[in-house]
């Protein structure tokens, strides 16, 4: 029996990179929102409250991803 073999009655191990996809998606949404806000401000465009939707979703993805990452510890 190898040291990496697990008995069948133990639950499977969680994947090692839990929450990584949510963290990356969150960073992309937050970063894209800030870039959009800065570019529109520089060009003199107007903002609506819909600008805050991807920002809020990105922050939510970041929070959930970080919580999932630390869940197994």
List keywords for this structure.
73 residues, single chain
Structural description of this entry:
With 73 residues, the protein is mainly alpha-helical. It has helices spanning 20-43, 52-69. Helix 1 (20-43) runs antiparallel to helix 2. The two termini are 27 Å apart. The model has no long low-confidence stretch (mean pLDDT 87).
SS-derived structural category: mainly alpha
Number of helices: 2
Oligomer: single chain
Mean pLDDT: 87
Largest sheet: none
In short:
This protein is 58% helix and 0% strand.
Per-chain topology:
Blueprint: H1 20-43, H2 52-69
